[in-house]
Design a protein that fits this description.
single chain; 175 residues; alpha+beta; Porin; eight-stranded antiparallel beta barrel; 2 helices; 54% strand
Length: 175
């Protein structure tokens, strides 16, 4: 890559040392963001948990939070690791309705997504999902699908990924 060669020439850093520095940097960045996300999510979140799945087919795991934003809307946010990179999503679920009572809910939303890894990408994701809230325990299980249109890419390639599915396990605070 052009940027890597520039760094090697200007700073006279060997390739394997640069990779070690970058890995440490990503780990530290992820830890800081995870601590920040957990503290923010637990302070005023409606639900906090883990999302297993990924972005554009990349498998991964993310801290998953849901924030109340009205009777039939909410913010669904994730901070996660996908194939060695960091992904951040903040989706506004503008349709959030129960199905046959209060146990099953479905939602539909959209919002910005970013990926920082081997490539840097910014895009817009859609989301449709189904979740089940247990009446006897404060947990919610869900599945979702997140197609993403990657608009900004360091290689100037606009792309569409429709193969992002996830499983959510979240703790529900209050009602």
């Amino acid at each position: 890559m052009i940027y890597e060669n520039f760094i090697f020439v200007v700073f006279k850093i060997e390739k394997h040392k640069l990779k070690i520095i970058m890995k440490k940097g990503f780990r530290q960045l992820f830890i800081v963001l995870a601590i920040f996300a957990v503290s923010v999510l637990s302070s005023n979140a409606q639900e906090v948990g883990i999302r297993f799945g990924g972005t554009s087919g990349f498998g991964g795991v993310a801290i998953d939070g849901v924030f109340a934003a009205g009777q039939f809307s909410r913010i669904h946010a994730d901070v996660g690791i996908y194939q060695g990179g960091l992904g951040i999503d903040a989706l506004w679920d503008f349709l959030y309705k129960p199905i046959n009572g209060e146990a099953f809910n479905w939602y539909l939303g959209a919002g910005p997504s970013t990926y920082i890894g081997d490539v840097f990408q910014i895009g817009a994701s859609g989301e449709i999902g189904l979740e089940y809230r247990f009446a006897s325990a404060p947990f919610a299980l869900g599945i979702d699908w997140r197609p993403t249109l990657w608009i900004v890419d360091e290689h100037s390639n606009t792309s569409f990924g429709a193969n992002s599915f996830g499983i959510n396990v979240r703790y529900v605070f209050g009602e």
